[in-house]
From TrEMBL:
It comes from Deinandra increscens subsp. villosa. The lineage of its organism: Eukaryota, Viridiplantae, Streptophyta, Embryophyta, Tracheophyta. InterPro entries: DIOX_N, IPNS-like_FE2OG_OXY, IPNS-like_sf, Oxoglu/Fe-dep_dioxygenase_dom, Plant_2OG-oxidoreductases. Gene3D superfamilies: B-lactam Antibiotic, Isopenicillin N Synthase, Chain. This is Fe2OG dioxygenase domain-containing protein. One of its GO terms (molecular function) is metal ion binding. PROSITE patterns: FE2OG_OXY. It comes from the Eukaryota. PANTHER family: OXOGLUTARATE/IRON-DEPENDENT DIOXYGENASE.
Length: 364
């Protein structure tokens, strides 16, 4: 999530995909139909070994395990960040009833009449409110998804007008959930630092007052899931992203691994973590942000709740010196202001890892 930057752009009226579903139309509007090269090939990825290879990290073993358990889990964490940029975390100590409550609140919001949800519009060029982000052209293909996003920390990025009073207890639930997710991000970054043989507090000290935002994604069933994407391929601009997949969801998250889209099979009560562009830059490319996307289902709706955790906007970012070797592993990324990168990220459409070109040093 980046600061609110208003663009002088009018992209016209965007169809609400939930309303399209209610209308029971069998034809998908052209605005959502992807070009042939972008369309998902559904039901053909038979890679159980690949999908199950996305590591599952047991946070309890990192927090309270014996020396052997800790060492094994740290090695697994390092491998997942290097090879996948994704892992699932279990025993994260976030109460299951809180996970259920935030999911329930999100569903209740998305089930409100469209007129009620549109009281909290996501304006063009912004990333808070209800609607679709990253839309900059009348001709741009749209994602089969409705979003509702809010800035959380620091308070200066909040837009109080976008915080709904309905459903009741929505704000209180988001606040409680976000406090626990923030603690999880802080803990994970300490273990990621240790996996790199760095001081465990290096990221916390570097990030200042870390920026945090939440986005709820609702993917209605689509009559032609083979023609659309729920969310365009992209990497995240954050340091860490935490994804909660709704219970009973169809598998919708795909990660690009060795030029193959691998479905992420949900693990019960786990949260999905992915490395963002910021960690890739800080580790000089050792830990990589992974391109990922969401697909839709013909019969099942899908919900996800995503938290983005990133450095303060006034922090300067660049490869950590201990991870740079001028002869064997020179800096692959320049130093830059994180707020500047956030602005770049939010003012461009989602195009794989293209936004990271902003930070790359061209090869000589």
């Amino acid at each position: 999530m980046a600061p609110v930057f208003q663009l002088p752009l009018n992209v016209g009226q965007i169809d609400d995909v939930q309303e399209l579903k209610k209308a029971r139309k069998t034809k998908v509007p052209d605005r959502f139909v992807r070009d042939m090269a972008e369309r998902p090939i559904l039901g053909t990825i038979r890679a159980p070994l690949l999908s199950s290879s996305i590591p599952v990290i047991d946070l309890k073993k990192l927090m309270k395990g014996n020396k052997e358990e800790f060492h094994f889990e740290i090695l697994k964490l390092s491998a997942s960040c290097e090879e996948w940029g994704f892992f699932q975390v279990i025993n994260h100590e976030i109460e299951l009833d809180l996970l259920e409550k935030i999911e329930k609140m999100a569903m209740e919001f998305f089930m409100l009449p469209v007129e009620e949800k549109q009281k909290y519009p996501m304006a063009p060029g912004t990333v808070q409110g209800y609607g679709q982000a990253f839309v900059f052209s009348e001709h741009q293909k749209l994602d089969w998804c409705n979003m509702f996003a809010l800035g959380l920390v620091p308070h200066s990025i909040r837009n109080p007008k976008l915080w709904p009073t309905n459903p009741p207890m929505f704000s209180e639930t988001v606040e409680a959930y976000s406090r626990d997710i923030r603690k999880l991000c802080e803990d994970l970054l300490k273990f990621i630092a240790l996996s790199l043989r760095l001081d465990e507090n290096i990221f916390e000290e570097m990030f200042g007052v870390s920026v945090q935002a939440i986005r709820m994604n609702y993917y209605p069933a689509c009559p032609r899931p083979d023609l659309v994407l729920g969310l365009s391929p992209h990497s995240d601009g954050s340091a860490l992203t935490v994804l909660q997949q709704g219970k009973g969801n169809a598998v919708g998250l795909h990660v690009l691994k060795n030029d193959t889209w691998v479905p992420v099979q949900p693990v019960e009560n786990a949260l999905v973590i992915n490395i963002g562009d910021t960690i890739e830059v800080l580790t000089n490319g050792r830990y990589k942000s992974s391109e990922h996307r969401a697909v839709t289902h013909k019969e099942k709706d899908r919900l996800s709740i995503v938290t983005f955790y990133a450095p303060s906007y006034d922090v300067e970012i660049g490869p950590i010196q201990k991870l740079v070797d001028d002869e064997n592993n020179p800096s692959k990324y320049r130093r830059y202001n994180h707020g500047e990168y956030s602005r770049h990220y939010v003012t461009n459409k989602l195009q794989g890892k293209k936004t990271l070109d902003f930070a790359k040093i061209p090869p000589k």
